[in-house]
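Why do we bother with a discrete structure alphabet at all? Because it lets us treat a fold like text: something you can write down, compare, and reason about line by line. To make this less abstract, here is a complete entry for Helix-turn-helix. Read it the way you would read a sentence in a foreign language you are learning: slowly, and without expecting to understand everything at once.
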Amino acid sequence: MPATQFRAWRRSLGLKQKDAADLLGLKKRMIQYYEKGARDGKTVTIPKSVRLACYAISIGISDYDGKSPQKLDLKNLSD
């Protein structure tokens, strides 16, 4: 997933960088690096685990306990 696609993913869900970071279990700064595609002049690759988490969030999954997925409610995210 390229940086531009990652940013498009976040925006398509109406998420602020902080909200995306919270949902993915990351710091806001990592979201910024992923969207820029670089950190300190070096290319940043979005890990497969983050790409898969993006997909899960896209289809409405917020968590998984090994038995059943928990549904995501984007309406209740903080502003």
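What the structure line is telling us, in plain words: The two ends are 26 Å apart (CA to CA). The domain at 3-76 is CATH 1.10.260.40 (434 Repressor (Amino-terminal Domain)).
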